[in-house]
Amino acid sequence: MAEEKKKVTTIGVLTSGGDAPGMNAAIRAVVRRALGKGLKVYGIYRGYDGLMEEDVKEMHAQDVSDTIQRGGTILYTARCAEMRTPEGQKKAAETCRKFGIDGLVVIGGDGSYRGAQTLAHQGINVVGLPGTIDLDISCTEYTIGFDTSVNTAMEAIDKVRDTSTSHERCSIIEVMGRNAGYLALWCGIANGAEDILLPEKYDYDEQKIIDNIIDSRRRGKKHHIIVNAEGVGHSASMARRIEAATGIETRATILGHMQRGGSPTAKDRVYATIMGSMAVDLLIAGKTERVVGYKNGKFQDFDIDEALAMTKGIDEYEYEIALAMSGGYQKETQKKVIRDESL
Ligand code: ATP
Predict the structure, then answer these.
(1) Alpha carbon of 295 to those of 10, 50, 142, 301, 331: distances in Å?
(2) 340 φ, ψ (degrees, to nearest 5)
(3) What is the Cα–Cα distance from 187 to 168, expressed in whole angstroms?
(4) Cβ neighbours around 286 below 10 Å, total
């Protein structure tokens, strides 16, 4: 017989891991949806640190006023080492019980979901929301913050390109994404980069990049933009080697944390609002150990274990189009992709 679920009356919400624009829209939605359904809501500050230190405050509708347009997270965020220990996990569950929190919404990445899982195993109902600019959560084609981040990076790259063209330079622009290349791929396409280096695809054959720069210079191109992913890294040393090999001034720009900030785009505000509301609805429906995702054109929820076990990679067709547009060092790879598909 299915276990009778205890009715959720009090919800907690926290943001954990790296911050992402749109997290505030998600917090706001959790708070307002829960209050609208007659639940009590607590904000937990600095991710799981807040559960260790009992930094927990009741939230009212006005606490989330004027936040939908703000970047960052009003609840602050942290990486909490203690949460990785059994003692820390026990303490976190005790804090939830102390405040009567029987449903917890965790906004963060895969690591934050793992922390949530440990609370679920101690009887706290949990729902995860994908909050990361990296788009590296497998069960979903959308994560809160990616859209804003890619637009921020795109605008910055446009600016670097202007000055790069004026000085007839080669520019290596490193974008974030940790070990995933989604941000770099999108910027590569959106900025019309000559080369796009993704951790999932790059073969570390720098000579191909050098040949491509020389070739495009011969054809009269005034700039050469290389979008490099954080997961490939080493942009500064790469720039020095390329300049030495080509004789063309080459500069590296690492965009860094500016990609995490800024006012969220309409898409991030709207999707985060829907996902935040869904998290509350799932908890009210007695669901636990779920994560909300956006897949095949629909908002859906997944079992947390299954979500963490899923894998995803760079879409081959998108990548092939990126190569076709850039005509970059990957010309050979591009031929290979097309050849492989005809097998
Ligand atoms: P981002 O994608 O921005 O890095 P993330 O949620 O994956 O977000 P992590 O630093 O991996 O970021 O995890 C955030 C927090 O979740 C950790 O600091 C820790 O408190 C908790 N956490 C991560 N992994 C575990 C785990 N295996 N068990 C318990 N808690 C964990």
Answers:
(1) 29, 32, 8, 10, 31
(2) -60, -40
(3) 21
(4) 15
Report which DSSP code applies to 7: P
Provide the token pair at 86: 């059994």
* Geometric angle at alpha carbon 324, from 322 and 328, rounded to 5°: 85
103 lines ligand 1 (CB under 6 A): no
Query: What is the pTM for the complete model shown?
Result: 0.93
With CA atoms as reference, report the closest residue to 134 among 304, 18, 14: 18
DSSP assignment string, 188-244: HHHTT-SEEE-TTT----HHHHHHHHHHHHHTT-S-EEEEEETTT--HHHHHHHHHH
Taking CA atoms only, the protein residue closest to ligand 1 atom 16 is: 112
Strand order in the sheet with 103-108: 56-58, 40-44, 10-15, 103-108, 125-130, 290-295, 298-303
Which protein residue's CA is at the shortest distance from atom 29 of ligand 1? 115
Contact (Cβ atoms closer than 8 angstroms) between residue 21 and residue 261: yes
Task: Give the pLDDT confidence of 194-249 residue by residue, as tens digits.
Answer: 999 999 999 999 999 999 999 989 888 888 999 999 999 999 999 999 999 999 99
Q: Match 């922390």 to its residue by tokens.
A: 115
Backbone phi and psi for residue 111, each to the nearest 5 degrees, phi listed first: -60, -45
Angle at 89 between CA 85 and CA 91, to 5 degrees: 115
Pocket of ligand 1 contains residue 145 by CB under 6 Å: no
